[in-house]
Write a structure and sequence with these properties.
Serine Threonine Protein Phosphatase 5, Tetratricopeptide repeat; 79% helix; 474 residues; mainly alpha; 22 helices
């Protein structure tokens, strides 16, 4: 169609430009950013020439290009372009025009992706208030804003605000859009995600299962939403330790994604990484390692060497090496991933903090307490400043630092830290959350060690510790 319009109407005709924009969007949806981005860039340049710099279609092209940069993990180009587009839309269209509100929402999402929740959340809140006023409380765009704000609260570890907002959004989408509308199914899946984040598997798993059943009936067995639901349910089974159900479901979902979306689609790559993680969790490193290595090679080829998903694959391969006891390969890979995340995402992005925590854990596993403890201490300070004192990441790092002190036989520093962390876990996450249970077990073990310390000259700790890994979820 594009070739025909170029021949009949010319390369710069508005209809030709529209087809070119839509083709770029199709490439982006298929995960082919290598063809999408140049096409978006060309369309934008032509629209600027034909329509002018602030024409609504030009602004749409600019916003679309920013979105493609974001999909490619290039936040250094995406965020300034989003900011410029928002400023131009506010000036040309007004502060409450639907396109302006879309720009504001997209910019908030980019800030969230960059780990800058201090800018993302207020922008989401302002956009939601404006959409409620301009479009109404139950307009689909308003509901989208409410969903996005709930997800931002969840990312910030604020489940007390996230879960009720997810519940409200789901109820409104059921009423306005119907029980099996894709957006309703997405809200149901998101609420299950929030329950899972809170360690409430009793509510998460049945909701995931119901959502998957509805998605299969309404959208079909291989619709992308259905595949996402299936992948999420597998992740919940994995979180609950039910590998007998998790692994076959991951395998089936991956096979379907390869068939429907292609072997190198971002969702396929995510599914492959998650399956490798499930194999690793089951102790089956013979299947996990080759899958991690193949997935990393594909991520590097398709997404680029420093795309956030590539960095996640690299981090997970390092963790697999560590699990296999191969610290000679794990530590350099952790160090390289950390350096790249610092460069791409910034020093205090949650994924950067995760890399730093994992590297400290590898140093600890190698008995190098001289490097492990200072790195844990620095990471905890940064997490407290960037994410807050009771964010799940902060609680996890605090637990690991206490464990490092215990490993160094420094119970005077380990015990108070365990006690403080347990109290914060109970308050922020609840009494039965996995992190709370881990903190409680570790404190009990430290107390036993303290009781026995005068009766033995050396102590070998058997306390279980948790090293943060990215959740195998979409």
């Amino acid at each position: 169609m594009l070739t025909e319009r170029e021949q009949v109407l010319g390369g710069a005709h508005p209809d030709t430009l529209l087809v070119r924009n839509n083709l770029a969007a199709a490439f982006e949806s298929a995960g082919d950013l290598g063809r999408a981005i140049p096409l978006y860039e060309a369309t934008l340049a032509q629209r600027e020439q034909v329509f002018g710099d602030t024409h609504p279609r030009t602004l749409t092209s600019r916003n679309n290009l920013a979105g493609a940069y974001e999909s490619a993990g290039d936040l250094g180009r995406a965020i300034p372009l989003y900011e410029a587009t928002l400023a131009q839309r506010e000036q040309a269209l007004g502060i409450t025009h639907p396109d302006t509100l879309t720009s504001r929402n997209d910019l908030a999402y980019a800030y969230q992706t960059a780990g800058d929740l201090g800018r993302a959340i207020p922008l989401y809140e302002a956009t939601l208030a404006q959409r409620e006023q301009a479009l109404g409380v139950t307009h689909p765009d308003t509901l989208a804003s409410r969903n996005n704000l709930a997800h931002a609260y969840q990312t910030a570890g604020d489940l007390e605000r996230a879960i009720p907002l997810h519940q409200t959004t789901l109820a409104q989408r059921e009423q306005v859009l119907g029980d099996t509308h894709p957006h309703t199914l997405s809200s149901r899946n998101n609420l299950a995600d929030a329950y899972l984040a809170g360690g409430d598997l009793g509510r998460a798993i049945p909701l995931y299962e119901a959502t998957l059943d509805q998605s299969e009936q309404a959208l079909g067995d291989t619709h992308p939403y259905t595949l996402t639901s299936r992948h999420s349910l597998a992740g919940a089974y994995l979180a609950g330790g039910d590998l007998g159900r998790a692994i076959p479901l991951y395998e089936a979902t991956l096979a379907q994604r390869e068939q429907v979306l292609g072997d190198t689609h971002p969702d396929t790559l995510t599914g492959r990484n998650s399956l490798a993680y499930a194999y690793q969790t089951a102790g089956d490193l013979e299947r996990a390692m080759p899958l991690y290595e193949a997935n990393l090679a594909q991520c590097e080829q398709v997404l680029g060497d420093i795309h956030p998903d590539t960095l996640t694959s690299r981090n997970d391969l390092a963790h697999a090496f560590e699990s296999a006891g191969d610290l000679e390969r794990a530590i350099p890979l952790y160090e390289a991933t950390l350096a790249q995340r610092e460069q791409v995402l910034g020093d205090t992005h949650p994924h950067t903090l995760t890399s730093r925590n994992n590297l400290a854990g590898a140093y600890l596993a190698g008995g190098d307490l001289g490097r492990a403890i200072p790195l844990y201490e620095a990471t905890l300070d940064q997490s407290e400043q960037a994410l807050g004192d009771t964010h799940p990441y902060t609680l996890l790092i605090r637990n690991n630092l206490a464990y490092a002190y215990q490993s160094a036989r420094d119970l005077e520093r380990a015990m108070p830290l365990y006690e403080a962390n347990l109290a914060q876990c109970e308050q922020a996450l609840g009494d039965a959350h996995p992190y709370t249970l881990t903190s409680r077990d570790n404190l009990a073990s430290a107390r036993k060690a303290a009781e026995a310390v005068q009766q033995r000259s050396t102590a070998t700790s058997t306390t279980a510790t948790v090293h943060q890994q990215p959740s195998p979820a979409d």
